[in-house]
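Contributing new records

If you add data, match the layout below exactly. Sequence lines come first and carry their own label; structure lines follow with theirs. Keep one chain per record. Anything else will be rejected by the validation script.
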Amino acid sequence: MYILGINAYHGDAAAAIVKDGQLIAAVEEERFNRFKHAAGFPEQSIRYCLDTAGITLADLDHVGISRDPSAHLHKKILFAATRLVSQTRQITDRIGNAAKVRDLKDELARVFGISKKCLRARFHNIEHHRAHLASCFFISPFERAALLSIDGFGDFISTMWALGEANSIQVLGQVEYPHSTGIVYTATTQFLGFPHYGDEGKVMGLAPYGQPRFIDEFREIIRTEENGRFRLNLDYFRHHAEGVEMTWDGGSPVIGRVYSDEFAHLFGPPRATGAVLTDRERDIAASLQLRLEEAGFHVLNHLHEQTGLTDLGLAGGVAYNSVMNGKILLNTRFKRVFVQPAAGDSGTALGVCYQIYNGVLNGERREVMTGAYTGPEFSNDQIRAVLEQNELVLESYTDEELTKRAARDIAAGLVVGWFQGRMEFGPRALGNRSIVVDPRRAEMKEILNDRIKKREPFRPFAPSILEERVGDYFEQTHPAPTMLMVYQIKEQRRQEIPAVTHVDGSGRLQTVSRDVNERYYQLISDFADLTGVPVILNTSFNENEPIVCTPQEAIECFRKTKMDVLYLGNFAVRRE
């Protein structure tokens, strides 16, 4: 039985495919069309999933999309009726968007140029947050777990919490439009001069540089209530009253201004993009981050009280806030946390598959997602052909020679491109599409920002560490295999790995085990044998673009940046 899951007509369009409950492939459209957070219809992602499964559209048994236009319909109608004058254009756009979602079979047949009669699959509309919840439970290691989906909005809901048990997910509570922690973070991100879709991570990185002197203001902006709920002071936002223009057709998403004039009256003029950052911006970021954590722990503590469980599944765009994630075990009674590696909207494609397989069809649970390596891969023969087409001088290594030589290059201070195996699903490069350097060299932050990444200097870089050595370097030891937790680095270790130690002494770590990624584990092990340090700096293989997908894209990125050596499969290319 084949099930195809889709996230479409929204940011981070993606597709995933499952056979008899086992995950075959999952990938974001941005990796193919090269638009960051690409919206629209994920045609190329679907093609990749079908090709990897070795089937055609006609072979699919079920197809689903992570939107349900009929969900909470009476609330949507009531809300729209009160705003027909002020939000006519936005409502019209959303009606058109909903029509595409509702007519998924027509759209699939049209895009692929086939007759609808060829599609024998049963089609499903899965409510957005139920797809999120399914994505962090049915592929988790937990038989029973408390679940939280928290993001901007989806199907008129911003936050939903539930109890997962066996093949069922029982919703226990929710927060509805227009109240949303994600909206607060997006609005403040825009106000601080970071206007692009997905820029919220920049503000998370900026926050440790400031002091939360505006915390009282943010407690007024977002107020916590009984039973795990929260409410926005809507005076500070535009989305509920005036509407916010959004572009979801192909390309990168664009969202209009979310914060209101009253928000600017409270904090002063918004920062212009590219302007010098001041203490005000740093302190606003610190206050926002603290208030997000307070609101998040408020929901989570209520969820624990409701369920009595200590295992937690977490998804939704706000679940990308790895700083908050890393503090969950310190501020709640949860003992184990599974964060869906593609926690944002791309991961709902995965959730759709498992909500259908487990939740609808009552299939046996058999998949535990320990990594995120579900994208395209390339054989050594394919890689060699591309290198020769580019007339590059290549070196060839055995498996054992490869990691040892690369480890020597890293220890010597070289900037190393590392392209191996299947591409990662989600926003984090996890050792297959990575740029790796020596974390002992403090200057590596500046070198990477100047020569490769071309990004803001306040943003931190991540440490990849052997899983069994986490306790030697970090204050917490809970595994973080998909780089979605931030822990404090032990004070006595910070000078040892300065390039991955953030200004507040923290690191957004990736714990690496041999079972999950053998070659990357061996690379770090070989580096540890040379240096005594079981950590390397890992950043995504890209330069202000989506993470590279193909060998050709890796070569192009290598050429336009100042990387020293590029390892693709069992080959290496050195800068002349």
